[in-house]
């Protein structure tokens, strides 16, 4: 996407990630599919431990703890378990899910749409038609918004073309 800047790069990366991971596949995919903008996942003993605490996930993924908690509260992700102290414990599949969530949010996929996509993905059942319809709807919305913005651009250009500079002097009342 030439000239699109960071947002265009993020969207391009997100689209590639979605193609590579396959939204209809299970969430236990290899970790090599983490989006490029996420830090590399460490291979130390934290990854092989039975549960990763939320702080470890946040540090490894580059997302704030509050964002991960929000995703839990919204039903987008779930801890694999809880510690005796009540801490959320995640397994390593959390990284692929967070990467997918980040990618889809970059494409302005709503939380409810995201929840449905993740449910389909976790079920292991391919529902390509529904996923394709979701993305087609997003594309249609973007194209409609672009038409609206283009019309607004034309109106602003016309307004500026007809602009009459007052020279900094306010006309006298009644003139």
Give a quick rundown of the structure:
By secondary structure, the chain is mainly α.
What this model shows, in words?
- By secondary structure, the chain is mostly helical.
- It has a domain at 5-126: Multidrug-efflux Transporter Regulator, Chain: A, Domain 2 (Orthogonal Bundle).
- It is built from 6 helices and 3 strands.
- The chain has helices at 5-21, 54-61, 65-73, 93-106, 111-123, 128-161; strands spanning 52-53, 81-82, 88-90.
- It has a 3-stranded antiparallel beta sheet.
- Helix 1 crosses helix 4 (93-106).
Write the SSE topology.
Layout: H1 5-21, E1 52-53, H2 54-61, H3 65-73, E2 81-82, E3 88-90, H4 93-106, H5 111-123, H6 128-161
Antiparallel strand pairs: 1-3, 2-3
Helix pairs in contact: 1-4
Estimated helix fraction? 40-55%
Which fold name is given in CATH as the topology of the domain at 5-126?
Multidrug-efflux Transporter Regulator, Chain: A, Domain 2
How many β strands by DSSP?
A: 3
Rg on CA atoms, Å? 23 Å
- Which architecture name of the domain at 5-126 does CATH use? Orthogonal Bundle
Sheet-strand content, in percent, reads under 5%
Low-confidence stretches: 23-48
Largest sheet: 3 strands, antiparallel
The CATH class designation of the domain at 5-126 is Mainly Alpha
Q: Helix and strand string, N-terminal first?
A: HEHHEEHHH
Number of helices: 6
Physical arrangement of strands within the biggest beta sheet: 1-3-2
Overall 3D form: elongated
| End-to-end separation | 53 Å
Structural class: mainly alpha
């Amino acid at each position: 996407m030439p000239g699109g800047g960071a947002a265009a790069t993020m969207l391009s990366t997100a689209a590639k990630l979605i193609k590579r991971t396959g939204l209809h596949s299970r969430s236990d995919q290899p970790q090599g599919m983490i989006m490029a903008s996420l830090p590399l996942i460490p291979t130390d003993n934290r990854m092989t431990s039975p549960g990763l605490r939320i702080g470890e996930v946040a540090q490894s993924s580059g997302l704030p703890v509050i964002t991960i908690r929000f995703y839990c509260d919204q039903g987008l992700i779930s801890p694999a378990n809880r510690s005796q102290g009540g801490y959320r414990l995640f397994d390593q599949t959390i990284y692929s899910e967070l990467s997918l969530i980040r990618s889809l949010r970059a494409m302005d996929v709503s939380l409810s749409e995201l929840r449905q996509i993740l449910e389909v993905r976790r079920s292991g059942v391919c529902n390509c038609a529904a996923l394709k319809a979701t993305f087609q709807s997003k594309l249609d919305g973007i194209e409609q918004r672009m038409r609206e913005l283009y019309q607004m651009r034309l109106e602003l250009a016309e307004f500026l073309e007809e602009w009459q500079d007052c020279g900094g002097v306010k006309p006298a009342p009644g003139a």
